[in-house]
Amino acid sequence: MNEQHTYRVIVRGTWDALTDGARTRLLAEAPEHGMTSMRFTEEGSLSYEPAPLKHFSMRYVVVSDAADGDEMAAAIAEDRAETTLRDLGYGFRDLKSTVTDLDTMKINRKPASRR
Please, which domain of life does this record's source organism belong to (predicted)? Predict the structure, then answer.
């Protein structure tokens, strides 16, 4: 069995060709998708600012084979984001991902004397 790693992936993008209905829905739901809604989950967490309604981000937890690396985790998260946004009827473009491998990240702990 291959070793599994857990990744946190932030997928960023730009809204594109939003219909009037989609724009109205995004603006109405904006309070639910602000700073306090940002969580890393398997199904993804959408966040954006209503003014201007231009960019968004989605946060994902992805578990995949360590041998596949960051690139596969990014591809999985971007595929999830595309599916979710299309299902919601939201136009988008320019998806870009930032990946953090939680199993390899270094944790800097403060010495006991500095706590």
Answer: Bacteria
| pTM for the predicted model, two decimal places | 0.88
Read off the pLDDT of residues 82-109 as tens digits, 9 standing for 90 and up: 999 999 999 999 999 999 999 887 766 6
Q: Return the structure tokens found at 82.
A: 């595309």
Q: How many CA atoms lie within 13 A of 12 on its CB side?
A: 7
Q: Which amino acid is at 32?
A: E
State both tokens at 60: 């994902």
CB count within 10 Å of CB 64 equals: 18
Q: Identify the burial level of 86 via C-beta atoms within 10 angstroms of its C-beta, where 0-12 means exposed, 13-18 middle and 19 or more buried.
A: exposed
- Residue 101 burial class via C-beta count within 10 angstroms: exposed 0-12, middle 13-18, buried 19 and up: middle
- Which runs of E-coded beta strand occur in the chain? 4-15, 45-48, 55-65, 92-101
